[in-house]
Structure formats: C-alpha cells, structure tokens
Amino acid sequence: MSLRDFAILAFVCVVWAANNIVSKFVVAHLGVPPMFYAAMRFAVVLIAVFPWLRSPPRPIWRLAIVGLLMGGGTFALVFMALKTASPSAVAIVAQLGVPITTVLSLFMLNERLTGRRFAGIALTLAGVLLVMWDPRGFHASAGLWLVVASAALSSLGAVMLKQIEGVKPLQLQAWVGLTSLLPTLAFSLATEPGQVQAALAAGWGFVGGVLFSGLVVSVLAHTLYYGLIQRYEATLISPLTLMTPLATIAMGVLFTHDVFGPRMAIGTALALAGVLVIALRANQFIALALAIRNRAQ
Fold first, then answer.
1. What angle do CA 157, 239, 146 make, to 5 degrees?
2. What is the CA radius of gyration of the chain?
3. Model's pTM, two decimal places?
4. If we measure between CA atoms, which residue out of 61, 38, 45 comes closest to residue 160?
5. What is the pLDDT of residues 222-256, one digit of tens each?
C-alpha cells in the first residue's frame, strides 16, 4: 500500500470514529430513534448521489445485496447498539469484522494470508485489546450482539464487493442509499412510534448529525474506503481499520477527559506498530527508518 493511500485510510478511520461519538449523542442523548436516524442518513446519501444510479454493472441483484449489507445491515444495527452501548465497546466488538473478513476472503476470493500480514493482524489486535480491556470485563449486552451482527454483514458485503467489476464508489453509494432507505424507514414506522416528533424536538443537533453521517461519513469517507478496497485485498484493508478504535480513544481523551495511562499507551504503541507491519513493505520500512534517523540527527 502506498503512503498516500495509507493516509487516506487513516483519515477515513478518524471520520468513522467521530461518527460513533456523534451518533451516540443523537440516539442516546437527543433521543432520536436509531432506525429513523439511519433512514434519514440514507435519504441524504440518496439525494446527494442520485445521478450515479444510472447504468449499474450487472448483475444488479448482487449490487443491491451489497448496498443493503453495507448500508442498512451495518449502520442501522450500529445505531441501535449505540442506544445502550458505549462507543468504545461498540468500536472494539466491531473488530470482529477483521477475522470474519479474513475467513470469507480465503473461501470466497482465494486470497492468501502471508506470515507478515498475520503477524501484523495479531500485533494490532493485541494492542487494541490491551487499550480497550477493562479489569471488570465486558458485558455482552443486547446492543453488543447487534454489533456482532453488523460486523458480519459488513464483512460479507465487503467481500462481495470484490466480486463486482466496474462499479464506481459513488455509484455504490447511490445503491447503498436506494436499497437501505425503504427497509430502514419501514422498520422505523412499524417499531418506533413518535419518531418524527422526536427528531423535531432534537432540532439542529439531529440535522447536523444526519448531514455529517450522510455526507461526510457515507459520501466522502465510505467512497474513499470503497475505492481502496477495490484496489487492495480485503485481508489488507480490513485489519488497517483497527485505527478507528484508536481514534475513538484519542477523541475520548480530548473531549471527555478519559485517563490515558500506561496500559493505554502500551496498547496504542502495539496497535500502531501492527498497522505499520500490515501496511508497509520491507523497503518502505527501511525508507521510514532512514527518514526518522535523518530527522533525529
């Protein structure tokens, strides 16, 4: 992976981390029903990229399934989970998508898992687990089980995306909005009474959250991510998204005054080292080491 693409993926992960915080605020503190929030997000996405619905690659049914899996099947479940679970717990459980994607890629795409990449995955997972580990343990609430389901659906969608040729990132976003809007809106109307009144009562906080989630997260960040996953193997891209929980921790320190102790520091260092092992080739490691040495002199 080039350093430019690595920087793009890092930006995407920061946006995803911010979305966890914003979405938690909207559904838990402002009281907006999560499925209605998801439906309005997909409405914004569909309006923003509607022209890209034209001339989709064949077969359309596969594109529609991928759109639903990576849209409604992922975000709606995460928004529901954030109603009761903390963003940090959601972030760590969502990392189950890494081994799920790896297993699916091995069977569905015949991709290889090299020893270096396996070591990087193990190192990064160890660091993230150390950062997120609580001596009291995690409580597997209903919300966290929803995250498990979300991770599985997102992984399946990501692998199926690799099997589609000729789809453009914004075209995929348009189909995500189209295939996810009606199911999430119908589910909200059936199970979330008073959703419109709750959204109106939330005011500009709800509007800002929807626009950020729809335009910045979906149209911008996810379009960049889909472009990367089409250029690189899923077993390479998926582990690198472990930067998302690290960014969530950093935002917690900055905005909610979380304590950053030795355990978090060591875990962060391990995770970032694992990310570099996955992302950089041997010659890039040498170039990076030389650059660091030259700056230190």
1. 50
2. 19
3. 0.78
4. 61
5. 888 877 877 887 667 766 777 888 788 777 777 75
